[in-house]
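ok, trying the design again with the full structure, not the truncated one.
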């Protein structure tokens, strides 16, 4: 993807408009942890997008050669949010070379999310992918093109990555890989790619994710700080080697449809992620006591009933319980009887693999 694009301000007549995109959060089965500038992952990762955990961004814009860039307003669920607004403004300014019109644009942003911000579910992935899709949509509109097609989504993934690495994976449905690996043709450190349908067994269609909120407070150590600690991590090289084995095996099992082997890899990735945090210098723990109690109960339930339900964790205390659609009814009873009581204020989101982003205006 070329950094600079030809753009003529002289040709620019005042244009205004409004675009909206809904974009989902995603949950990684193979974890991205550690990065190089600029948002280049230390290792490849694999995820799927969720159905209910969505951010919708509406962007209003006025482009004119008379204008100089400004973020005229930013709201999150109807309220101002200065910290996030500053991050977005910095992000937009960093994108002038990818969207030359931006330098001459007044932009207003309204953002709404269906899940609590910083609850430990990756709201930034949903937010940055929705922002990237809106920007690519405005660009397409100015060029008289449709906001669709391979090149459109590839650029959206690239731009989303610059805001939050995992956001690159939120622009596609299905199983999505971000990070260069010889195991996936066309994979790249710059943007995510979707696995072909015939690479994924039907057992994974409609895969469920019940999100168990153990603690919704803001994390003591952010993901950015955690990524940075991987630079001089004593287990860095071993992690890179391990992830290449896990990626090879998960791709094989995604195709073969062995849900138990898939789940074993998923749990290994989650526990590895948290053990890398604990063994960083300084080390830290993001799990809540109830996280551990729930992990033990999930494993016991699986052993006793043979139900293929496996946990994963992001960089936070909340659990994503992953299981095939075929055992959903059985899982509801377990979740209601044993998990909800361990969730903060009984908060649980029964989600599943979603259809990917959607243009809403
Ligand atoms: O995209 P970031 O910088 O918020 O990093 C997210 C990293 C994990 O959620 C822990 C793993 C992943 O691959 O999503």
């Amino acid at each position: 993807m070329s950094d600079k694009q030809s753009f003529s301000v002289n040709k620019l007549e005042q244009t205004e408009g409004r675009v909206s995109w809904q974009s989902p959060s995603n949950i990684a089965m193979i974890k991205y942890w550690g990065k190089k500038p600029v948002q280049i992952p230390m290792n490849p990762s694999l995820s799927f997008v969720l159905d209910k955990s969505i951010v919708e961004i509406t962007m209003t814009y006025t482009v004119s050669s008379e204008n100089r860039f400004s973020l005229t307003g930013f709201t999150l669920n109807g309220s101002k949010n200065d910290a996030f607004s500053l991050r977005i403004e910095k992000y937009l300014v960093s994108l002038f070379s990818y969207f030359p019109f931006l330098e001459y644009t007044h932009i207003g942003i309204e953002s709404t999310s269906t899940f609590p911000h910083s609850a430990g579910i990756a709201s930034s992935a949903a937010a940055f992918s929705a922002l990237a899709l809106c920007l690519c949509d405005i660009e397409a509109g100015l060029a008289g093109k449709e906001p669709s097609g391979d090149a459109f989504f590839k650029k959206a993934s690239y731009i989303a990555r610059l805001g939050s690495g995992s956001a690159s994976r939120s622009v596609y449905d299905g199983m999505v890989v971000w990070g260069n690996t010889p195991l996936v043709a066309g994979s790249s450190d710059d943007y995510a790619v979707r696995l072909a349908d015939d690479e994924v067994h039907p057992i994974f269609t409609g895969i469920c994710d019940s999100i168990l909120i153990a603690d919704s407070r803001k994390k003591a150590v952010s993901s950015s700080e955690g990524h940075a600690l991987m630079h001089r991590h004593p287990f860095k090289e071993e992690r890179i080697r391990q992830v290449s084995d896990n990626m090879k095996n998960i791709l094989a099992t995604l195709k073969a449809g062995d849900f138990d082997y898939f789940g074993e890899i998923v749990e290994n990735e989650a526990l590895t992620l948290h053990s890398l945090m604990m063994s960083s210098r300084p080390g830290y723990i993001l799990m809540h006591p109830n996280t551990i109690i729930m992990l033990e109960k999930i494993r016991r339930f699986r052993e006793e009933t043979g139900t293929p339900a496996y946990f994963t964790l992001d960089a936070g205390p909340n659990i994503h319980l992953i299981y095939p659609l075929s055992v959903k009814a059985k899982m509801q009873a377990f979740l209601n009887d044993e998990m909800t009581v361990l969730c903060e204020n009984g908060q649980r989101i029964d989600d599943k693999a979603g259809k990917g982003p959607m243009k809403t205006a």
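Keeping the full-length input from now on. The pocket of PMV is lined by residues 28, 31-33, 45, 122, 124, 164-166, 223, 227, 273, 314-315 (CB under 6 Å).
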